[in-house]
Amino acid sequence: MLEASPLDDGWQLRHEGRSLPAVVPGCVHTDLLAAGVIPDPFLGLGEKEVAWVGRREWTYERELPAVPSGHEQSDLVFDGLDTVAEITLDGRLLGRVRNMHRSYRFDVTGLQGSLAVRFVSAYAEADAVRGTVGERPSAYSEPYQYLRKMACSFGWDWGPTLVTAGIWRPVRVERWSTARLARVRPLVTVEEGVGVVELRVDVERTRVEAGLTLEARVAGRSVRTEVTGTSGVVRVEVPDAELWWPRGYGGQPLYEVELTLRHGSAPLDVWRRRVGFRSVGLDTSADAHGTGFTLVVNGERLFARGVNWIPDDVFPSRVTRERYRKRLRQAADIGVDLVRVWGGGIYESEDFYDACDELGLLVWQDFPFACAAYPEEQPLRGEVEAEARENVVRLMPHPSLVLWNGNNENLWGFRDWGWEERLGGDSWGEGYYLGVLPRVVAESDPTRPYTAGSPWSGSWEHHPNDPAHGTHHSWEVWNRHDYSAYESEVPRFVAEFGWQAPPAHATLRRALPGEELTADSPGMLHHQKAEDGNGKLERGLARHFAVPDGDFDRWHYLTQVNQARAVATGIEHWRSHWPVCAGTIVWQLNDCWPVTSWAAIDGDGREKPLYHELRRLYADRLLTFQARDGALVLAAVNQSGEPWAGTLSLRRMSVEGEVIGAARLELAVAARVVDEVRVPAELEPTGPKEFLVADARGSTRPDEAGSGEGLRAVRFPAPDRDIPYPRPRFEVTVEPGSVTVTALTLVRDLLLQADRLDPGARADRGLVTLLPGERVTIGVEGWETPDAAAARAALYCQEPAR
Length: 802
Fold this sequence. Notes:
With 802 residues, the chain is of the alpha+beta class. It is globular and about 90 Å long.
């Protein structure tokens, strides 16, 4: 039977003639940090102080012990090496590698001695490749397009430049005899209600003549077949298999698959995975609105409620199974049902996809290409195909994985960012996205759809980012336009959009120790990586609010409110246009370090107000006021599987709390549809002193304001800077684990910043608007010394213009 022995301990890192303890899996930066050689690059301006690390060569060393006898072959297996390295044993070359996204296997039968892994600087490798293939344009100045490495380790508009090297995934010795399972490709389908697992197997042998069999077990059923040469196929049928569904549509039953390779009755190797039975498709058919882009799971057409995922740490080896599960649980808890693994990062670990399988989170997986023209010549072309084949097969068992995507923004870049002229006919990646990658997916994993890129209109007949065709990235908003411009178009699928805000106050205090915080203080500017990021924040704020002068706490609060408002404007508009628009993927769920960014969860794992706003926006049922043909309507979005019936209450109110007009209507919305109710003209607000409130009773979840069962929509017809808000008055009471606020006036955008109570504290909700007499109870975890005065000091809301 194959035996595996981990080689994760005992490593040393060679640094300037001396050795430092090394942690494997890990990287040079984390080892140097642990040894006190470098400062924490996440704090202050520390990133600048460690830039030299990425430009050095580094060597990891340890002894390869003598291998016990009893097996015919011993293999040294690296699950991940970052990135360009030479592996030697007692000075003997085992091999050279150049791809972070692949695993590697070396025959070490009968060998022992000093094992060394010498990493070349990624910059040196990039320069060498560029010298061979020529210059290629990109969105950033760093040379990430010349090697197969996590692009964002070279920095991004939300990430630091920390160019890593190291043994970033586990390493082990595998000992085996006769044969082993070299590759198992599981095709999991549903055929007329029958679950089918077809295992296509490649075998590596030491003895060609040995007779081999494969035995597969699924759900109590067992099937055997002979191995012919070095391959075999086993098909197991599971009658009445329970279907795996995305969260909100059904359960997530998972079935254990066990495949055993045998020589006679003796087991030689075993492969175990969990699978889920479901069908998945992508409807890109043309219609009256253009070209659709709708995910279909088990025959059910979905509006995807998505978030974009970046590596959760710029040093990915630090992301544990528990951390993956916590972050993805945070996503599921706010109604997210799709996570897009963005193309400037990595193929994530099994822990990520296991959590998505269990939580019912659909995974859209980018191949790792982002924002650059990628050469198609060797040595990159062969690496790209080998990497794609390995990772497609590795991730195939996971039912959560529903879409392969060729790249992020490269087709768009070729057309709009001046690349075509600069390239002058040189290769730039089109052959990957429209040739190599779709071929690999079709040959290896025909059970899942593939799309060439994001954004992509489906063909060169339309602009790559045409909102009427395929996927769309909405970045004119934020970069140039106010978020009200979201309402000017209805894309078929919005795969990226977002608005920036700073991280939580406690995150800033930890990341910028001793610094007097201002919007443009040195640390704040260093932890703002977007081009003119603060300028865009200021201009976006000024369109809606009276920008506070010199009051950092107020500026911090309002920029976070503005982020939530921006994303809400987009999602409410686009969800109200289902099924023309079939999904939104917010940029972004998470951060990889403490930074001002588009994230809903900051680099220390704290939830911004946007996070809690997404719970409302991505709920099964949503009320939103929308303009339709010059009239105001209330759109009732029902994405649940049950009809939505109840009473709809409309109130036209003054900011002083007076009810100026009211109406009651019956609400009846079928499952999975959007219905619209025309707002009577006499209830429409006529100026900045008035607003409109809609409450739907009889829904399945409590109102955010805590005013009873139901859902609420609020419409203010003017920017906040023009609204004559009353000075907010409210009462605060504190109990262990909660803060209750009772409004005596209109209180708009009330926010408890729990991290100001204690850095470890967390509130269970974000922005709340209370009408006079309403109250809300906010749950608070991690606050050991409840105090009403402290709670009041941590509460923020809209105030009269100064």
